[in-house]
Amino acid sequence: MSPLLGIKNWLGQRITKKSGSWSDMLAGLSLASMNIPQVLGYARIAEMPAVCGLYTVLFPLVAFALFGSSRHLVVAADSATAAIFSSGLSEIVSPGSAKYMELVSAVALLNAGFLLVARLFRLGFLADFLSRTVLVGFLAGVGVQVGLSMLYDMTGLVSSSHNTLVQTIGLFQGFGQMQGLSMAIASLSCVVLLAGARQKPHWPVGLCVVVMSILCSWGLDLQHYDVAILGSIRGGLPAFSIPLPGWHDMLALLPISASCVFVIIAQSAATSRAFANIFHEHDDENADIVGLCAANAAAALTGTFTVNGSPTQTAMAVQAGARSQTAQLVFAAVTACVLLFFPAPLQYLPRCVLGAIVFCVAVRMIDIQALNGIRQESPGEFRLALVTAATVVSVGVEQGIFIAIALSLFRHVRHSYMPHTLIMAPEASTGMLEAEAVAPGEQSMPGIIIYRFCADLFYANCNLFADDITTLISSAPDPVKCVVVDCSAITDIDYSAAQVVRDVLQRLHARGITVLFGRVAPFFLKDMERHHITAVLGKENIYMQLHTALASAHKLCDGAKAL
């Protein structure tokens, strides 16, 4: 088989795998109607020509659709990465200059290289450190942040900052300068969009709003009434070129690119995982990194800026009815048609309508029902979700992602640091062994303590293991002859914990108390041998089942009584 035929078959398999239905195609049309104006706004954040925003949803979108794994993730221009590289590059070169545009594309090419390295090291596992709780909080924070920023376009104001708190203060300060007609048009657009999403969720309501607003803006000359419009946009497909800045420029771009790549991986993984959870699907985060690498390479070669998995645009796609990357391919095709044949009409689109479209999507990203469910079932996790959302709103998306990962890890470590510890004791009515919380004065049966430690043993929780056994033995109503440790939940032990366990065993042995380990898994047994616990405990006191350990404990106690 020829190489060309092999490539053709591979592409056919990828497209077939991601293909959808007519609803996906209609969703792609609706997505294009809402997102084409939005990416024009992201071009402003990136301080690039407006047409570069359209370029981000052309070849980069197709590249991710072919190489990525997620059925829902929309990879295009994004406010977080646009703010990162624009603020960094503005300190090196004047924004808007030819040199600036070359360095912007060079950053995208560097991102592609870093993402390829990330795929080789399988860094997609970062998504595993994002719990569903913090994902709900993350999306809610993004929704609040985006919604507040869109209020500027909806009210005819101009924001001088990307910081949400500063923007909020600016809205109050600029209350008297708000443009009444823009507010009325934006409010009407919101009503239509929200009602359409509720009553006809799969209809291209956004497309109708965009078309009608362009016609009204052109026919009624809304600009004459101080309603801001997008302005002229250069058409045509992008020219292919390879950005080749100097060596010193490349060194200066490395920290900027590294910051972008971490945000790209974390934000894309967070967004992809969040929407996969909604539809009970599984995504391959490492395959998504390959898609992101291809998308950023396509962006660099077509003269545009860094692309990223966008929570806002992905939410738009899902809310429009998209269930596969077919919608994104239709989106790219519509973008090509706009660039080739219809760049002129877009200039009449009122910015307030654009703001209303994005605002409605942002509102729907705040999942009140999910937050309420978390609050009812786990107040502690609800607080973590709120902290994540507050961080995104007050500091930024990238910091919100870092906090989300840190909080997820903190919650896990907290449970491991203070695990449940139990003592098995016979239930009064049935005589069957039941687990109870460890407390002074508790004893499983005369002469025997059956103790269960419900986590791996490591440096932070090993003292709890020692303290519990010491407390149970010292406060037992009858002298303790044997301690049976149920090891069913212990799969690993580190160096520090092993030292503590050996010390406990030696102290109990000196007091004439026998210790038996039951339900010892093979991998835990290997750790015990490596840390010399087996030598101190004795192989004869290690059992694969708990009932055999209990039988041995009863024999030891009965023998002690006979003596």
Helix content: 55-70%
For the record, give the distance between the C-alpha atoms at the N and C termini, rounded to a whole number. Answer: 84 Å
Low-pLDDT segments: 1-17
Number of helices: 24
Strand count, sense and barrel status of the largest sheet are: 5 strands, mixed
Strand proportion: 5-15%
How many β-strand stretches? 7
Shape: elongated
Tell me the domain tally: 2
User: Which structural class do you get from the secondary structure elements?
Assistant: mainly alpha
How confident overall, as mean pLDDT? 86
Main sheet: strand order: 4-3-5-6-7
CA gyration radius, whole angstroms: 31 Å
Organism: Acetobacter pasteurianus NBRC 3278
Subcellular location: Membrane
Transmembrane segments: 48-67, 74-94, 100-121, 133-152, 172-195, 202-220, 250-270, 326-342, 386-410
Membrane topology: Multi-pass membrane protein
What is this entry, summarized?
By secondary structure, the protein is mainly alpha-helical. The chain is 64% helix and 6% strand. The chain has 2 domains: 3-412, no CATH class; 419-560, Transcription Regulator spoIIAA, CATH 3.30.750.24.
Structure description:
The structure is a single chain. The chain has helices at 3-18, 22-45, 50-55, 59-67, 79-89, 98-120, 132-155, 164-173, 180-199, 205-220, 247-278, 285-301, 311-319, 326-341, 343-346, 351-365, 368-377, 379-394, 397-417, 462-475, 495-510, 522-530, 533-537, 546-562, and strands at 75-76, 308-309, 421-426, 433-437, 448-453, 482-486, 514-518. Strand 3 (421-426) and strand 4 form a beta hairpin. It has two domains: 3-412, no CATH class; 419-560, STAS domain (Transcription Regulator spoIIAA, 2-Layer Sandwich), CATH 3.30.750. The chain contains 24 helices and seven strands. The strands form two sheets. Strands 4-3-5-6-7 form a five-stranded mixed sheet, sandwiched between helices. A two-stranded antiparallel sheet has the order 1-2. Residues 1-17 have low confidence and may be disordered. It is mainly alpha-helical and 563 residues long. Keywords: Membrane, Transmembrane, Transmembrane helix. This is Sulfate permease. The chain crosses the membrane at residues 48-67, 74-94, 100-121, 133-152, 172-195, 202-220, 250-270, 326-342, 386-410.
